[in-house]
Design goal:
Blueprint (H helix, E strand, L loop, with lengths): L1 E3 L30 H21 L3 H31 L5 H21 L2 H8 L2 H10 L1 H5 L1 H9 L7 H10 L4 H14 L2 E3 L2 E3 L1 H10 L3 H17 L2 H23 L6 H6 L4 H30 L4 E2 L17 H15 L1 H12 L3 E2 L10 E7 L5 E6 L6 H24 L8 H4 L1 H17 L3 H36 L6 H16 L6 E2 L20 H15 L7 H11 L6 H5 L9 H25 L15
Parallel strand pairs: 4-8, 5-7
Antiparallel strand pairs: 1-6, 2-3, 6-7
Helix pairs in contact: 1-2, 1-3, 2-3, 3-8, 9-12, 10-11, 14-20, 14-25, 15-16, 15-17, 15-19, 16-17, 17-19, 19-22, 20-21, 20-22, 20-25, 22-25
Length: 626
């Protein structure tokens, strides 16, 4: 599943046309009490028992058969989990749903622990010669070689079988349970603003998108104070203390080199490449960020920005709500301008009622995609949105549609065990979809103002996707290292948050004032999934490098790109880029991704701004700076 929490739309719920665009899960199960749900769970548990009986101690002879049964279990477990997760995502405080989801998750964890833990231990114990012989005679094992190779390559991090069993048994009772509880509490947060009781997505819309700077600042003050008054910062601090502490203990036992190592291994990226990404963004990305915010300040007529101005629309931006049908037409046309195959997949998601578009009581903020391969062999992709009609919402629709197309293509090509791409390049298709939509809209712009609005909006998205996410990652690196010495207080988290904010955005008064900023770490739910966030920056720059060479390959590019998506998790980042003559191990790869995207957009944005009378030395010909 890919989750994105940065999307907020316009404030009016009643005018988008998306109010009735809800997904239909009835063909999975009729409800949480559907007897077929219990029957599927019983079948799944029986399959796990059969897995052990048929393959423990025999893996040298039965590896292919074991993989086929594992695939069937993965599909059936996926059907159960996707249904319960999607139901819960739109009704987060429903205790019956929470109980049902916990029951299924715990039962499957027990079965996995009791009957399947042996698999990895026996696999890595097979000698290299015997392993090669198995691949030579077993077609199913040969097809899963990338997965098997990865497990064997990381054998040194595997703990003894009884310990792995215990960890699997306890997994539903640890980090995920705290994260789920945090989501539930977030859905209940309310902020009194403008004589309304607003949900988190609604108040963040005002902060990020309202045309009135004073309203944005007031909304941020209400939001920040509300997080503390409703004790959400204390709850998040406690949650992070549990998650970070447990992770540090397990990392030490497994022998990981550092807090990020397990995530990097899961992403099939070496530590040095990830460090090069962080260094490039901290230097070159932050430099372009300061350039963008200076230009934004000039258009807003301010010497320094308030934090609530960070995502502010330009004064001349059309604030009209974009109806859902117009949004969908735009995204489909954009995808179709590049690839009819992708366009048809995006259309299928809507036609099949796999999209839940509007905000609703009990529904979480942000957006996510959940791709799945069902037991009948059908690949699906469900998209959750909070569509409120802004241009950014259109880009979010394009983003999640990309995830969905990626998931469907990869599931069809790779099967249940290998279709999920590591998170670092799971963002490739989503960001490519955004870029395709951006390019399409840019081509339709008729005036300098329209073109500038698109360039600035895309640059703002780049700041949030690249610079902000790497600042998040550096915040995580700080708190994970601090957590090794003991529990952290709300003040400790806030201090680390402000330090990384100053590192990337400057000291107070240089670009920004930092009122009501110190506790904003407490609503970033991604921190409960350690080091998830750098995947956004990786995926953005990874994709910008691809986008830059598109014309070099002419008509061949679409097929090459679709092959990349179909690879799913069967190839690592280096292998995926090789056909395009690109190498993410090269430090210049990341710098070039920055210069080929946001630097180019800002070059044009500055030229247009000068034609409009905006000077970048702190003065504006359109008015006095505030």
């Amino acid at each position: 599943m890919s989750q994105d929490n940065n999307s907020q739309g316009s404030s009016s719920k009643s005018e988008t046309g998306a109010e009735d665009v809800r997904w239909d899960l009835g063909d999975l199960y009729a409800g949480v009490d559907d007897p077929s749900l219990d029957a599927d769970l019983e079948e799944l548990l029986a399959m796990a028992k059969s897995f052990e009986e048929a393959h423990r101690g025999k893996l040298g002879d039965t590896l292919g058969d074991a993989l086929e049964l594992d695939s069937k279990m993965t599909c059936l477990a996926g059907k159960l989990m996707v249904y319960l997760f999607l139901m819960r995502s739109t009704d987060a405080t429903n205790e019956t749903l929470q109980q049902r989801m916990g029951q299924v998750h715990e039962a499957w964890s027990r079965a996995s622990a009791n009957h399947m833990t042996f698999f990895e231990h026996e696999l890595v114990a097979i000698s290299d010669d015997d392993y090669e012989a198995i691949l030579g005679r077993d077609e199913v094992a040969r097809r899963h070689k990338p997965l098997l190779d990865l497990i064997r390559a990381n054998r040194k991090y595997l703990l003894d079988e009884p310990v792995e069993r215990a960890l699997t048994l306890r997994s539903p009772l640890g980090a995920s349970e705290w994260s789920d509880y945090l989501d539930e509490m977030e859905s209940e947060l309310r902020f009194d603003f403008d004589e309304k009781s607003m949900t988190l997505p609604e108040i963040l819309h005002v902060v990020n998108n309202d045309a009135d700077g004073d309203r944005r600042a007031s909304a941020l003050e209400v939001f920040s104070k509300g997080l503390t008054e409703q004790r959400h910062d204390r709850l998040t601090a406690r949650t992070l203390n549990v998650i970070l502490g447990a992770k540090a203990t397990e990392d030490e036992e497994r022998g990981y080199a550092g807090p990020m190592s397990s995530r990097n291994i899961g992403n099939q990226i070496d530590d040095e490449t990830v460090e090069a990404l962080h260094d490039a963004v901290a230097k070159h990305g932050a430099e372009q960020g300061r350039r963008y915010y200076r230009l934004l300040a000039a258009h807003l007529g301010r010497k320094t920005l308030r934090w609530s101005d960070r995502n502010a629309p330009l004064p001349f931006v059309d604030e009209c709500i974009i109806p859902w049908e117009e949004c969908l037409d735009t995204v489909l046309a954009a995808y179709g301008s590049f690839s009819p195959t992708l366009r048809d997949l995006v259309a299928k998601m809507g036609e099949s009622k796999w999209v839940d578009a509007p905000p609703a009581e009990g529904k979480g903020g942000g957006a996510f995609n959940y791709a799945i391969l069902l037991p009948n062999g059908e690949a699906r992709a469900y998209n959750s949105l909070n569509y409120l009609g802004s241009t950014r919402d259109v880009m979010t629709v394009a983003h999640e549609a990309g995830h969905g197309a990626h998931g469907i293509l990869a599931a069809q090509a790779q099967g249940a065990l290998m279709f999920r791409a590591p998170m670092a390049y799971a963002e490739t298709a989503s960001i490519f979809g955004e870029m395709t939509t951006f390019k399409y809209l840019l081509g339709k712009a008729e005036t300098d103002e329209q073109r500038l609005a698109l360039l600035m909006d895309k640059s703002s998205d780049h700041m949030n996707t690249v610079v902000r996410q790497i600042s998040f990652s550096n915040f995580e690196r700080n708190i994970h290292n601090q957590r090794k010495s003991g529990k952290l207080t709300v003040g400790n988290y806030s201090e680390a948050w402000m330090q990384v904010t100053r590192d990337f955005y400057g000291e107070p008064g240089e670009l920004f004032q930092y009122e009501n900023v110190d506790n904003l770490w407490s609503y970033v739910s991604h921190f409960t999934r350690p080091f998830y966030v750098y995947a956004y920056a990786f995926g953005e720059l990874f994709t910008q490098s691809l986008f830059a060479v598109q014309s070099d390959f002419g008509d061949k590019f679409e097929g090459m790109y679709l092959d990349l998506l179909r690879a799913g998790g069967s190839r690592n980042a280096v292998e995926l880029m090789k056909p395009f003559d690109l190498d993410p191990r090269d430090p210049n790869f990341w710098k070039n991704g920055i210069e080929g995207s946001v630097k180019t957009w800002l070059d044009e944005a500055e030229e247009i701004s000068k034609r409009m009378g905006i000077e970048l030395n702190g003065q504006s010909t359109l008015g006095v700076m505030l």
